[in-house]
Write a structure and sequence with these properties.
Blueprint lengths: L9 E5 L3 H13 L3 E5 L2 H11 L3 E5 L7 H10 L8 E5 L4 H9 L4 E4 L4 H56 L6 H32 L5 E2 L2 H11 L1 H7 L2 E3 L8 E2 L1 H18 L5 E9 L2 E7 L7 H5 L19 H11 L4 E5 L5 E8 L2
Parallel strand pairs: 1-2, 1-3, 3-4, 4-5, 7-9
Antiparallel strand pairs: 6-8, 9-10, 10-12, 11-12
Helix pairs in contact: 2-3, 5-6, 6-11, 7-9, 9-11
Length: 359
Amino acid sequence: MPTTATPKITLLIVDDIPANVSVLFDFLSASGFKVLVAQDGESALQKAHYAQPSLILLDVMMPGIDGFETCRRLKNDPKTQDIPVIFMTALADTENKVKGFELGAVDYVTKPIQQEEVLARVNTHLTIRKLQKELQTQNDELDAFAHTVAHDLKNPLNAVLGFAEMLGENAADHLDAESLEYLEGLQTASRKMVDIIESLLLLAGVSKQQVEKQPLDMLNIVQQAQQRLAFMTQKYEAAIILPDRWPVAIGYAPWVEEIWANYINNGMKYGGKPPRLELGATKVANKIRFWVHDNGEGLTKEQQAILFTPFTRLNQHRVKGHGLGLSIVQRIAEKLGGQVGVESEVGKGSTFYFTLPVG
């Protein structure tokens, strides 16, 4: 029975000196690769876009656009940004090496080219890229599995919660104190499970969903988050202080509302008694830092270090949680081009912040 030949891995060599190209072309072809050649940056961009090579060997000094600019354009094109680039250069000084890495190159080789060294570096980065793709595939499958399980659990859990609430409304007069306590526990546990499922679905959605970022009406977003937490605000007798004006940032309103809801929620749980939260914003370079300062106990350096780790819970003796909230906050902020963090000192409260690009 005939067998199908394994397709060759494609490499792209970009160099304007025919002698350099010829030597590498013959050696890499003899090593089992399919080798494409471009003699300038523009043609390299075209060939990389359409041929999708597995790796690019890119000369720095070329006529027209040089290797640095070619690399920058490769990394700005979604179709080529993940292709590993190895610079070939006679510029062995540190500044040019660093510049190449900053532009997204994975490695460099210095001229005159040593063929065996090139082959070793090529094979190393092809292996790394293969492992990255396998890991990404596994992560995608895990995300899809988590989303499916969470979605399938949502409806039956809502039914359990609904029946428990109906029993509480219609049968409370016929139950003794112990049974009422059990019923209340069933309702609390059901709500908690629904919250966890909603968090898992949101986390999966943030990972996969592509959204259109727009200028944000932050006052309205914060008010929406406060409305969601009105019951908690009343329960904890929390004071929430808002600024007179909000600067305009770029983002996606539903996700940013989730950040505020998580921060305000945690501020009320872990703040003082009663909690006092101050919200605000500060411009930092080309970003805006939005923050929530609480009057809680503050956090140690060790606690701060693990704060945004998924499924990590702090102060469990005070309020139990499933630890997804802050990891969702971090995922959202990074997806929107920002960052998250906390500044805290024991005995002086905590300031939780996230940044977004200036509008």
